[in-house]
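Whether sequence alone determines local backbone shape is best considered at the level of individual chains. When preparing material for the folding task, we compiled for one chain both its residues and its backbone structure tokens. The sequence in question and its structure tokens are set out directly beneath this paragraph.
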Amino acid sequence: MDSRESLRIAIRSIRAHKLRSALTVLGVVIGIASVITFATFGASVQAEIVGDIGDSSAGNIYIFGTPEGDEGFDRTFQPVFTESEQSRASTRCSHAGSSKSAQ
């Protein structure tokens, strides 16, 4: 089967099934448009966040979700490590540093 005959059969099939062909084209157009829309939205949100944070000289950034309409930082934050865990970690680090310098 040569390419001309294949093209002729394809065109005949598209003409015979107009609704199916139109719905297929519509689905492809909607799919491409949604991918472009969400990619653009993601890039713009990323640029806005980087722009807001980029000028800051903060060493750590914490992000907390709050209910809509709730403003301010009126809640108490729980520390990630307890004081005993911090002292144990600093003790281990100081022992590790002294053993390396002894070698």
Notes: The helical segments are 3-16, 18-54, 83-102. Residues 1-55 form one domain. The radius of gyration is 31 Å.
